[in-house]
Design brief:
mainly alpha, Serine Threonine Protein Phosphatase 5, Tetratricopeptide repeat, 18 helices, 7% strand, globular
């Protein structure tokens, strides 16, 4: 069986590197896992975490590129994404975000299809149900990631617009068209509903040894995000409350210190925070990027101006006016994060912010301030608790805190999409490249949507 699993793993790697059929993970005729233990090993793959929303990184208006950092981009598609180009991959380049997500969807489909018939071996029925629940939850998460990258935001006027391919079977030859945004969200919710009782009865609150696999807090965290993104704010309160009931750990930044005082590029003395799989705030791991120094990611002026540069530890620990090579980037600031993983997965800070936003949107502004204060007291030195004034002011504070807390994760771009879908005002953004060309991102623009690459559409014309 180890040989079988090795064959599967090798085929996955080959698909990543040389993709002629982006769903061709396990070749026709290859044997598949047969025991519960075999299927468990398929889920024990940390590489599922890598490269989520990488297309969004340079599209995010909160990231700035100076001439120096723009010219330091070795991949032309990243320069084009910074310019909000509508065909950054051209005719010949692969889009790893798309390929990797469907690679893992195939694996989760395989588990869902075969787990009920697998031999128990030395495992139990409880373990079978846990693996089955995880596979449904993982598939839901993959589609949540995909639909928010490659489609407009969910709203009553957008639900019939094209989303992404909805692959639920093991047909390697299928040339699937794009399901609608509404259909994708319906499937996400269906998968989470199937997973819920299976995980409640058989899973831990939080998988501390493999945080890329969901626990109960993770499941409710994703249900909360889905509800928030659909504008179902009462449900978002309910699910985020449940998630935090199961697990609500926050690091206290007041206890952090830099390895070399005064040098944010030296990293922190606390290792697990910067790590990928041992970060205690990360309850469902999917990371956007590990390194933010080659080239440096700069804070936009608008984002930098939001921070209290004296007391906000998110600023003092993670900003520098020199890059890692000590080159001055002033008047701008680098996101000084060496060997640090920015999380696009489910984290407790994100769920705190979801809870706060959903509460103020349902008229519980004072409750929103209470939950927000619990987060901010762990982030700001000399913190003076916020006092509730009115819902509109509170909502604006929460939006700003999302930008500061979740910077460089891809969430800001998607948040802008959803605020516009809610009917709320967002800015028009402009950028200029070193050649002096000006690029504009307007509210509701198709440029908020990552286009499916031409190479993938040539393989499957039904995606056009």
């Amino acid at each position: 069986m180890k040989k079988i699993l090795k064959t599967i793993i090798i085929s996955i790697i080959l698909v990543s590197c040389n993709n002629d059929n982006f769903l061709d993970v396990i070749p026709n005729g290859t044997l598949i896992p047969q025991t519960i233990e075999d299927f468990d090993k398929l889920l024990e793959d940390p590489f599922v975490t890598y490269g989520v929303w990488t297309n969004l990184n340079y599209m995010d208006p909160d990231l700035y590129m100076s001439d120096l950092t723009y010219n330091g981009l070795t991949d032309m598609e990243r320069q084009l994404q910074y310019e909000w180009d509508e065909s950054p991959y051209g005719l010949t380049k692969d889009d790893k975000d798309w390929i990797d997500r469907y690679k893992y969807i195939y694996i989760f489909n395989l588990i869902i299809s075969e787990i009920d018939n697998a031999d128990l071996g030395n495992r139990t029925e409880s373990e079978r149900n846990k693996i089955k629940g995880e596979a449904y939850a993982q598939r839901a998460f993959e589609y949540f990631i995909l639909v928010n990258e490659y489609a407009h935001h969910y709203s009553s006027s957008n639900i019939d617009l094209p989303g992404v391919s909805l692959s639920l079977e093991l047909d390697l030859d299928a040339k699937l068209s794009r399901a609608t945004i509404g259909e994708i969200y319906a499937q996400i919710e269906k998968d989470l509903d199937v997973a819920e009782p299976l995980l409640l009865e058989n899973a831990e609150d939080y998988n501390q040894t493999a945080n890329f696999r969901p626990g109960i807090a993770s499941l409710y965290g994703l249900k909360a995000l889905v509800a928030l993104y659909k504008g179902e704010f009462e449900n978002a309160v309910t699910f985020s409350d449940k998630s935090l009931e199961y697990y609500d750990y926050l690091y206290d930044y007041n206890t952090f210190s830099l390895a070399t005082p005064g040098n944010p590029w030296s990293g922190l003395t606390i290792q697990d925070f910067e790590g990928n799989y041992d970060n205690k705030e990360c309850i469902w791991n999917r990371n956007l990027k590990q390194t933010h120094f080659n080239p440096a990611s700069l804070y936009s002026t608008e984002l930098a101006d939001l921070y209290d540069k004296t007391n906000d530890l998110r600023w003092t620990l993670f900003s520098s006016q020199t890059n890692i090579d000590e080159v001055d980037v002033s008047p701008y600031f680098c996101f000084a994060a060496f060997n640090y993983y920015t999380q696009s997965g489910i984290t407790t800070p994100n769920i705190y912010l979801v809870n706060a936003e959903a509460k103020v949107r349902t008229g519980d502004g004072s409750g929103a301030i209470t939950i927000l204060n619990k987060l901010l007291e762990k982030r700001i030195t000399n913190f003076i608790p916020l006092v509730y004034a009115d819902d509109q002011t509170t909502l604006q504070v929460i939006k700003e805190e999302r930008r500061k807390e979740l910077r460089m994760t891809g969430y800001n771009l998607i948040d802008l999409k959803r605020y516009h879908a809610y009917g709320e005002s967002i800015d028009t953004y402009t950028r200029t490249n070193p050649s002096g060309e000006v690029f504009t991102l307007e509210p509701g623009s198709d440029k908020y949507v990552v286009p499916i690459s031409e190479k993938i559409k040539q393989i499957n014309p039904n995606l056009n």
